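Class prep. Write one:
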Amino acid sequence: MPGTTSVEELIRKIPKTELHLHLEGAIPLETLYALIQKRGGDPSITTLEDLKRKLVYTDFAHFIELWIWKNTFIREERDFEDIAYQVLHHLSRQNVQYLEAFYSPGDYKPHGLTVEGITEYLIKGKERARQDFGIRCELIVDIVRGDGVDVGMQRLDETEPYLGKGVIGIGLGGSEHKYPADPYEPVYKEARRRGFRLTAHAGEAVGPSSIWAAIRKLGCERIGHGVRAHEDPDLVAYLKKHQIPLELCVVSNVRTRVCTSVESHPIRQYYDQGLMVTVNSDDPVMFDTTLTHEYKMLAQRLNFTVEELRQLTLNGVDASFLSEKGKESMKAQFEREWQQLLAKYT
């Protein structure tokens, strides 16, 4: 293993994918601050440091409160073009080359914004970022559990025109405790029929039963989080046998107290057991993390070797919704970059 300084530099430069990131939870502080000022400001926020302190929460309920507060400053559909552009700009600085990003357009309907308008501006922003920074992004529309099945079907209708033109799939977010996945089976069956790729948040707030439902009822190709799979050995065996990818977010799970510490997170155990694990940052600005920081935690506190980090980056490509041809091309690019970095840092 290289020295500490060279490991940190290496990790910043390694090629990365991000498969579990919420665009609205990744808005750079500078961008969010500008939105706050544009919309008349907040008396408690006069500097970037004020904003950073504001985003420190005490529990998950407080986190949701801050999430809603943040959303009140996003009042125009055109805001989403700059949000997408700035998020991707920041990710590109960490050598994130491919991103599949969740967005929750229904959150903004009370402000009079349309799902179609938000989607179109996000596509504009991400295409501009691809031209300027080379980073590719596909969108995953968030179906919120608490909104109900009818609204879920409506989201399919609203976003289907953009399928293959910027939108790639659907996800299921919201409270696992209050709203089980099972009722959304018809939404997912219809989404699959229409060509949407399928993932869902599961096994975060609720245990293995939630993951089983995502697999058996929804037919998910990937699991968002899945951190509590270890509570059911049969589920672990199933995930391994079928190589169903887990979108793991270590710092997020510690911040929301699903795990008590980085050291207690099961990602090390899952990797050693042969599960298909990927590394992601969830809501990086809200959780005060970055994808680079996530990889640092794996190296420094969970003893992942450089070779294991390399494998994790390749897992991110394999677990993506890219075509097989697209995966092979990106893996070849990743391998070339890894060889150059290893020659320099080891």
Remarks:
- The first helix runs from residue 4 to 13.
- Strands lie at 16-22, 96-103, 136-144, 167-173, 197-202, 222-225, 246-248, 277-279.
